[in-house]
């Protein structure tokens, strides 16, 4: 196949690309079977007939919907071999529209299989005719597009392949065809692999690759989701941590060293394909016990290797006529200095098991940024020699199966190789002379490079004490275009004079979306914004912060800023996060300055009067912060927290007790970090849930009420949580601290909402109601089934920010109430007795009273009761009939 194929293929996306690739591969196989034999040269030259073919699809199609035109002839170009050798040229397609007008498209050049394709869009209803023409051609040795030779021994060179043509028709209708819809995003617990048809799930899936992936936006996870609740998935012991216990000095609650002074740990964690990798420390060192790979969702150890852990990951999308898609497993890379050759060795490892795969040697130094297909690229600037170049790890020789012009040149096969990458450059351009001593400050790939001379390092580290470098010298900044059409051109050069008063001004973060780069003044803690494209100041200086904000990070003075969603975020020892609009410098919101649910004030709990708060990561519209400091005392002060804050509004989303470092890794909706209060790795994210529901096993009599009851529990695999009650998002923080951190059980915790429905014997859905489980997980509801028969009772937990959804079912039987027998009606009324007069007593002694009959209901009472029962039965039957009519 030709470069023409690759260029066309790059313009088409999604299912259409897959359809075309599959079709061309089918043609490749079929045509290969009839390829011409190789014998000796022909004298005189032969004339060989050809047969043309044209396919237009889909057919029929709707107005305005794109169709594919695939064209080929039955004979392959005889000298074609890989990207060398002849190609058929001059393919054209004449299109006759329903109104009789004609349009010719082309010419096109075939690929190595004799085929090519293009796309075209009809604009009116009716029948279209297509005429594909091959003008005929004399076979040649070289590729007409790149000049590369093919099979020099082929006997068909100089033979004539005759002209041929083919026709096709297309029916265009008014109603468009309906494509296969994307499968919906998950609402229940999911794991990898994600089935290939669920392409929309890229909105929830992500990786944390480190290295150049976070160069443009440090700490930012640009894709996927992040937790909206502090629900803990699992914890893994990292080192012994927390309170030591014992006698003597330890009796006062002494804790283990948290390593925050100079041995920050968990700082190079990676997440690839739902697997978390991190280095295991040895004693007080940051490493030494190898590294471990665990399942991101369960914490289960997948493998351990007693070696130095790679520091960044790569997924490379390789697209050629023979291979399409991301290379399976990806790569983890470790860089080693090659002193003998003056360069660096990049060593690639398999993320599945940690095994070595291949090396790239003589890798140059420079500014590392990842390319659009996952390439590891390094920008190099040589001011003395006036050149700017882009090194590209995928351009190294011998990474394919074999070099040359055969089809092997289109097969990515680096495993087991030791490749010299000294010549792996994508481009090299001449640049104008820049001021002496110039350095690169920031690169936006295929866009712009910003550099400077004499620009101070805000966080310069001198003599072991963190002081910035004051500067009153003139500073020069410049920008060079990296866009393909103007690459290497100087866009602007500006002279900046720092303010008076020994003020240190340094470069802050850059945002390519709003086209703003920032500067900050260390001493005044203020910020300024400048236009990327011309260097002009847009706004500032702005900012009026607490004195403690002077210490912008746990290590050094001077504020640290980050850009995300068009905003500038600044944290520090002052305990406040400031959010500024990058377009105009306006202060949008602050977090931590008091107010319900928005406070890091601590009074006497810390020496600062608040909790130092720094950005740790940005993901899914949220900013995650941590509390820490440099060289903290032991035991650490209590009450420090990680916090999730809405990045647009500053509203607090959730908090959780944690004394931690800046190292966060977020992917697939899970946030991982090291909690130094207990020296355990924590994974935060949505957990599994389980619902149970039950009803009496024996049938009810119609009219009786039934108690429906069940439970909703947390099924997260960690031993602390599995089987415990599911708790509401509002109470999740204290509940997790109770389960995992030995804090008191929250007495006011509530459960989650459960919707109860019934499917009655007539197929109708009965809404039983919505109930809330309690802090033991129990829910209940009294209900009276309306009609007799068999019921299905369904309990549904729709999920929350803490748990994925779940449901359960049970059965319930209801029998009709028995109809009572009516009382007998006497046919002959009893005779009426005539009372006999009683003579006056003659004795003076009173006689014993005569026995009286027992009291009981009269016959009239029985008749009234029977009538009432008959009325009730009639009403019930009528209700059933009306129900069925509905």
What are the main properties of this structure?
single chain, 886 residues, mainly beta, Immunoglobulin-like, Methanol Dehydrogenase, Chain A, 3 domains, 5-stranded mixed beta sheet, globular, disordered N terminus, disordered C terminus
Description:
This protein is mainly beta and 886 residues long. It folds into three domains: 3-173, Macroglobulin (MG2) domain (Immunoglobulin-like, Sandwich), CATH 2.60.40.1930; 232-684, Methanol Dehydrogenase, Chain A; 689-815, Macroglobulin (MG2) domain (Immunoglobulin-like, Sandwich). Helices cover 7% and strands 36% of the residues. It starts with a helix and ends with a helix.
Number of helices: 4
Radius of gyration: 40 Å
Task: Please count the beta strands (DSSP E, at least 2 residues each).
Answer: 56
Gross morphology: globular
Distance between the termini: 65 Å
Beta-sheet strand percentage? 35-45%
What's a quick, concise take on this entry?
The chain has 886 residues and is mainly β. A hairpin with a 4-residue loop joins strand 34 and strand 35.
Layout of helices and strands, plus pairs?
Layout: H1 3-10, H2 14-32, E1 47-48, E2 52-57, E3 61-62, E4 67-73, E5 91-96, E6 102-108, E7 115-120, E8 126-134, E9 137-138, E10 160-161, E11 164-173, E12 220-221, E13 232-237, E14 270-272, E15 275-281, E16 288-295, E17 301-305, E18 312-314, E19 317-319, E20 324-326, E21 331-338, E22 343-349, E23 356-363, E24 367-370, E25 376-382, E26 387-392, E27 418-420, E28 425-430, E29 439-444, E30 448-453, E31 475-481, E32 490-496, E33 505-511, E34 516-521, E35 526-531, E36 537-542, E37 560-564, E38 567-571, E39 577-581, E40 587-591, E41 614-619, E42 622-626, E43 641-646, E44 652-657, E45 660-667, E46 670-675, E47 680-684, E48 689-694, E49 700-701, E50 706-714, E51 724-725, H3 732-741, E52 753-759, E53 765-772, E54 778-783, E55 789-797, E56 806-815, H4 859-885
Parallel strand pairs: 1-10, 3-11, 12-41, 23-27, 49-56
Antiparallel strand pairs: 2-4, 4-7, 5-6, 5-8, 8-11, 9-10, 13-47, 14-15, 15-16, 16-17, 18-21, 19-20, 21-22, 22-23, 24-25, 25-26, 26-28, 29-30, 30-31, 31-32, 33-34, 34-35, 35-36, 37-38, 38-39, 39-40, 41-42, 42-43, 43-44, 45-46, 46-47, 48-50, 50-51, 50-54, 52-53, 52-55, 55-56
